[in-house]
Structures are given as structure tokens and as C-alpha cells.
Amino acid sequence: MAGQDEPGSLERYLGNTIKELRQQHGLTIAEVADRADISRGMLSKIENAQTATSLETLSRLAHALGVSLATLFRHYDVPGGGAQLVKDGEGMEVVRRGTKRGHTYHLLSYDQGPTKQFEPFLITIDHESEVFPTFEHPGTEFIYMLEGKMEYRHGQNTYELEPGDSLTFRGEVPHGPEKLIGCPIKFISILMYPSQTNTNAD
Questions:
Q1: Where are the domains of the chain?
Q2: CATH topology for 9-73?
Q3: What are the two backbone dihedrals, phi and then psi, of residue 174, each rounded to the nearest 5 degrees?
Q4: What are the Cα distances from residue 175, in Å, to 14, 47, 80, 91, 102?
Q5: Which CATH number is associated with domain 92-192?
Q6: Rounded to 5 degrees, what are φ and ψ at 77?
Q7: Per-residue pLDDT reduced to its tens digit, 125-162
Q8: Which of 64, 70, 133, 199 is most buried, by CB atoms within 10 Å?
Q9: Chain mean position to CA 189
Q10: Tens digits of per-residue pLDDT, 71-127?
Q11: Which of 175, 154, 100 is nearest to 130 (CA)?
């Protein structure tokens, strides 16, 4: 989207917005122009960013399109964002300490810069005979069970986890799967690291 400081950017934004709304409603230029009581030529110029227009005219156009005046401006000068989309099955498979046959980690977000703030993993275990080491790391870990059933140890305590259950704990206390009750097991594990700490997951 054009930035606010670029010449004509508001006119281009409004023109595109009005045209998109008109087309979404299946209306012609003539129909909207008649409803807004402006000429068809003026509406065409507005949609093509060939002219500036008054708030009064914009208000009439918004009414003709069945939206509020504020709706016409709601996406103007909004930050571009930069979300990272990882499609189903496209998470980066990584090797961590304790990763063995039937025990896979898929990292669901990466390229976070030199200082990691968090790491979300999709962990799948499909062999009941697996034996796991314990893990320790800075920060906090959050687990959400998606499939299967297991006992998970954190320090001296064990917790039975089933689909829909969640567990949050301090990462520096030894932890890890204790007993696999129903395989395959699948869960989300999110490691949240302390601020300004550059560390690696186990």
C-alpha cells in the first residue's frame, strides 16, 4: 500500500477502495454515481485517482456503497507488517538433543534475528519404545497437546497430558516425556526465552 508521504497516495488508496467496494457489491459506476448524486465521469476520475474530492462527496459515496465514511479510511497508512506464514507440513525439521527414530521436531517459525525470543515446535512421537533424555533451557516452556497421551515430567512431578491439555513450566528445571501412553503423540511446544538472552534450544 502506498505510504502517506507519497504524492497522490491518499487519492490512489481511496480510488482503489471505492472501486473494490463497488465491485464487491456488483454495482456499476452509473449506479453508484446516481446514488451518490455525482456525475459518472467524476466517479470514474475518483476511482482512477485522477482528482481529489471533498469529504462531503466521500460521505455520499460511502452511503451509496452501504459503508461508513470511516470504513473508507480504515486501512490507510496501516503498517505493512511482515508476518511469517508456515504452511501445513512446511515447518523446518530440526535435530535436537534426544531426537531419535520416531521423534521429530518441526520448527514453526525461524529467521528471528540474532536474539531469539521464542521457538515454536510441532513435536511428533510415533514409537512407544522411545527413551528420552531430560531437557533444560533458559526461560519458560508451554506445551499444548494435540494428539495421543503421555506422562510428562517436570522436576519431581509428572503430569498426564491428553488432547486439549496444556502445561507451562520453567525451562531450567529438568523436564521431558516420562511415559508414552497412546501413540502417535503430537503436541506444540513453545520455548520463550528471557529478554536480551541469546541462547540455543536443547
A1: 9-73, 92-192
A2: 434 Repressor (Amino-terminal Domain) (1.10.260)
A3: -55, 135
A4: 55, 60, 40, 24, 19
A5: 2.60.120.10
A6: 60, 30
A7: 887 655 677 889 999 999 999 999 999 999 999 999 99
A8: 64
A9: 17
A10: 888 888 776 666 777 788 777 777 655 445 567 888 888 765 567 788 899 999 887
A11: 100
